[in-house]
């Protein structure tokens, strides 16, 4: 137990954890079920190409989301690229800068310019009031992102998209199992894209999925993810290889089966963090709207350096020394990464809220790999760091 400043690893104490705690430690569902599925896949000798496990995964996801079509793909980045191309987006597309780089890359990969919109600091999501100023004659679409699984302002963005004749899709990589005004994410815009990467609360090792209620779009996306094949020797559309394989689908199915337990573990961790950190000056945990469905996948802290007496980066360094690998997602914002930094050197001028927030955010470990005792230890260290911010600053600066 760490009680004093001298107990901290940056002051020479032993690290709190022998093995690193990661933010994205995968949740492993029912191991037995998974191993049986792997045997079945090998027995089937059907490893990919829309096999029975992929079909089952799609069916189960569609039924859970209450959406007409779920199309499984190899990851969410390729899924975004295929949706963008399938909808014929060109020119410029408006997205938040405060997102994982894949949202921007899925456009730029196809020579479409992402135009970065600032966020509302209260929600961390794209600020609808800042969208219209960014629309030009080249704008063809908007990609809303439901960051941390908290839906962006779908209604307001949809109203703008409809009025300005723009296609609206959502990067819902974080938002599987979340709802907006009582309806599951997956049902909004032309399509929504989920990620089942290993670090997501529901994982398929690697995986993505497009959810849509549009029959024509769904049929087109199915062609596009399979080279445009409409049958043997019959290519009817441009396509790529976006297919999910059977092993990934089996992991996705096992993960879905264990979803309630995973959400419950995440929720309990969230509550524990909330309790342990309450009243700590300058350290606030983001809120999830309890009247909606949440997956509590991310434990997101905002560190106000002036109130906390310690900067986010010094707190992160303190935690890293303890083998707690906290992350500063999505620092420094897409617009400050290449190639966008070079393409749009002045976009920071428009993105003051994004730039402020990227200096404050710290993501902590959660999921089934973390115990309540781990959460308590992490919070104890955060409290100690906040109590001794000035000393920690001088220690870390002397180590530079
Ligand atoms: N849109 C948004 C808004 C997204 O957040 C993402 C992905 C996408 C689109 C694209 O989805 P995909 O194409 O990936 O399906 C991770 C994930 O790689 C990425 O999927 C995710 N967002 C992002 C938020 O987080 P990194 O840069 O944190 O690194 P990574 O993958 O090395 O993992 C983080 C930590 O997890 C590591 O410190 C170690 C631990 N880990 C990771 C893996 C893969 C494990 O313990 N076991 C593992 O198997 O991006």
The helix/strand class is: alpha/beta
Bound molecules: ligand T4K
Report the radius of gyration as a whole number of Å. Answer: 22 Å
Number of strands: 16
Mean pLDDT: 97
Explain this structure.
The strands form five sheets. A seven-stranded mixed beta sheet has the order 2-10-9-6-5-3-4, sandwiched between helices. It has helices at residues 31-44, 52-65, 76-86, 101-108, 154-163, 215-224, 246-257, 259-277, 305-308, 312-321, 340-343, 352-358, 372-387, 389-398; strands at residues 21-22, 69-73, 92-96, 113-117, 139-145, 167-171, 179-180, 183-184, 191-195, 208-212, 229-231, 234-235, 283-285, 299-303, 324-325, 361-364. The model has no long low-confidence stretch (mean pLDDT 97). Helices cover 37% and strands 16% of the residues. It is of the alpha/beta class and 400 residues long. It starts with 20 loop residues before the first strand and ends with a helix. Helix 8 (259-277) runs parallel beside helix 13 (372-387) and helix 10 packs across helix 14 (389-398). The structure holds ligand T4K. The site of ligand T4K has 23 residues, from helix 3 and helix 4.
